[in-house]
Input
Amino acid sequence: MISLAVKTARLIFCPNYVTVENMSIFPRCFLLLSIAAVTLNVAPSNAQSNTVAPLNPKELDRYHLAADYSKQFKGLSVLIMRGGQVVFEEYQNGHNANKAHMLASGTKSFNGIIAAAAVEDGLLKFDDKVSDTITEWKGDELKSKITIRELLSLISGIEPGDNGRPPAYAEAIKLKAKYEPEEYFEYGPASFQVFGELMRRKLLVKNETPLDYLKRRVLNPIGLKVAYWNHQQGQTNMPSGAYLTTREWAKYGQFLLQKGKWDGQQLISEKLLAECFKGSKTNPNYGLTFWLNKANDGEAKVAPKPAGRGRLLDLLGIGAETTIISQQGFGKNLPHDIIVAAGAGKQRLYVIPSLDMVVVRQADQARFEDDEFLSRLLLGKPAE
Output
């Protein structure tokens, strides 16, 4: 009956309206009327619903301001959830709700959840030495010291590998350590492929891959459907393999927001999950595979760049995005509890516990600033 009432109201106020997926051309005046008229709840376990919860006009204006900014820079989608409800959903530049898009390095943040689940299942501890499982490291002065926590916090000291070209597991575990653990933060895919090999060995007895394990422990229970996950040499691409629709990624964000609980079941211990959102002394703005907004908690010790173009850009004050976020967070005027999964092409999953909010932004590669987007979305104005 509610569904029929909504459809009828939409036809009365906007006869050419088709679906919520066309919200980018949906008249905003009618959207306000329909939202004010009907409230439909979206259960956290049903992130695919087209339901829209009631908003006040100022809040909706902020969301449109952010979505317009995203669209200007090759944005494909913006989806916002509050209190487990979809309150805004817009598809742009030819994208739609049914199209999966690469997460790129947004994939990395699944590794922290795998680790937390594995701790709960007794497969490992965060502060175990990696060399307890990858025994080839035992004879190496530096690599023998590295813990799983340091590996996933990207402060292990091993060579980071080339972003966009993750090494195979066998290649990753052969990379050298350049620094002592916790000496520097250095971003790259290699640590996640090392973790993939560690998990592969841990799961041999179960005949599971790391992706199988992730699906069994988390993704299947929350009903998250992976459209595609690429592999290398038959092995799960841990740092950059996932392709999801906007709504499916939002589901994952809601799971994080609910502290590992879904449909009344605690899938991962809240305490263990919280370990993923703690920055290190080396980099307060990066936890176990998640970016954070702890800008005032101390300056990150980012590994120095070798001579060449990268070093020159740093000297000119044009640092890599990962360096900038490491040093400054996402914005000093924004909530300090922001948790972010971020990928190349400006793929973003923002989780903001203090606002009970999940935001997904997917896009093609283009200039895009997190503080500009978030300032518009949360404050209704450009970043200062």
About this structure: The two ends are 47 Å apart (CA to CA). Residues 101-379 form a domain with the Beta-lactamase fold (CATH 3.40.710.10).
